[in-house]
Write a structure and sequence with these properties.
Number of helices: 1
Structural class: alpha+beta
Largest sheet: 5 strands, mixed
Helix content: 10-25%
InterPro entries: DUF2188 (IPR018691)
Pfam families: DUF2188
Low-confidence stretches: none
Order of helices and strands: EEEHEE
Region (Disordered): 1-22
Organism: Micromonospora maris
Mean pLDDT: 91
Protein name: DUF2188 domain-containing protein
Strand content: over 45%
């Protein structure tokens, strides 16, 4: 089963949540963007929320429902 990936990324002076290249929402603070990303990810499990730093690197990842890693076999 494929997971839906959401990303919290910097957006000018604020932050946005993206899914598949589409902006789900824009927010003034990273904290608000992470909260919105968690809600979106919980609403479409199995899913993953990837939070990025201000320079675009991955800071942390959250996986919701079954994590297929390590893969079976």
């Amino acid at each position: 089963m494929t997971r839906t990936e959401y990303h919290v990324v910097p957006d000018g002076g604020g932050w946005k949540v993206e899914q598949g290249g589409t902006t789900v929402g824009t927010y003034d603070t990273k904290h608000r963007a992470v909260e919105a990303g968690r809600e979106a990810a919980h609403g479409s499990e199995p899913s993953q929320l990837v939070v990025h730093t201000a320079d675009g690197r991955i800071e942390t990842e959250y996986t919701y429902q079954d994590d297929p890693y390590p893969p079976a076999g």
